[in-house]
Amino acid sequence: MRGLFTFGNKRSSPYPMKLKGHDGWVLAVAFSPDSRLVGSASLDGTVKLWDPATGQGRGTFEGHSGCVRAIAFSPDSKLVASTSLDRTIRLWELATGQCRRILKGHEDSVQAVAFSPDNKLVASASTDLTVRLWDPVTGQGRRELKGHHQSVWAVAFSPDSKLVASASLDGTVRLWDPATGQGRGTLEGHSDSVRAVAFSPDGKLVASASHDYTVRLWDPATGQGYKTFKGHINWVQAVAFSPDSKLVVSASLDHTIRLWDRATGQSYGMLEGHKDSVQAVAFSPNGKLVASSSNDRTIRLWDPATAQR
Length: 309
Known about the structure:
There is one protein chain. This protein is mostly beta strands. It has a single domain (about 15-305), classed as 7 Propeller (Methylamine Dehydrogenase, Chain H), CATH 2.130.10. The chain is about 0% helix and about 50% strand. It contains no helices and 28 strands. The chain has strands at about 15-20, 25-30, 40, 45-50, 55-60, 70-75, 80-85, 90-95, 100-105, 110-115, 120-125, 130-135, 140-145, 150-155, 165-170, 170-175, 185-190, 195-200, 205-210, 215-220, 225-230, 235-240, 245-250, 255-260, 265-270, 280-285, 290-295, 300. A hairpin with a 6-residue loop joins strand 18 and strand 19. About 50% of the residues are buried.
């Protein structure tokens, strides 16, 4: 991929790039740790892999009996995890496309999945009100985290793997110790359901996205709010940090992706092009691209330097 990215150069950059292939809403998007693949999950029941340099498809994983809600790459780039309304998490071998494990235990649809950065755990979040922790090698359940009062829609690990954050329709973000299963605090302040959660790569902040149209930043050590980002005019469905932790990116049902300056809370710019609600967003680990997925059945790749200010 060397030489293909021309950050900030609109004339020679192939971005924004549109990826088409799904037959339903595209509900999730993620980059591989080396930024060489993009994965997408769809209402059509499949997971697809793409080359972000060319936009070409690199494979399709099929096996879930329901809509695929979320995906995540393992830190060692050997596995892709996917979750579904069929109540399971599947672990796929990236090299072969084969399903290595099917994780069963949730009593309702599984809405989110994350690998711990140390690659020792998989966390899943479900509308059965729980977060579950699994061993990715054996497929055995490790812990069940209970405390939310409504469906859990998102889950994330801290960079040191010592905390799990979960976001819920009950309007809160909860922090957990994955080693013990004990709660480590509740982040409260949103006035509506919390749809997404992410840790900053430097571990100093948690970001949450809500149906109250805002993104909030929190200090996970104290539980105190740090900043509130306002600008979206509909539910905010997704949130992520840039690899250097300086920018926050959010996606909304208002059809837009917004970039925010973490330090000032000011808008850094906006990315527009989707024809329907934007469901997911991710920064590439090399910081050169933003990926988004939408109800318009496409994935789009953007150069963040071209955001409209």
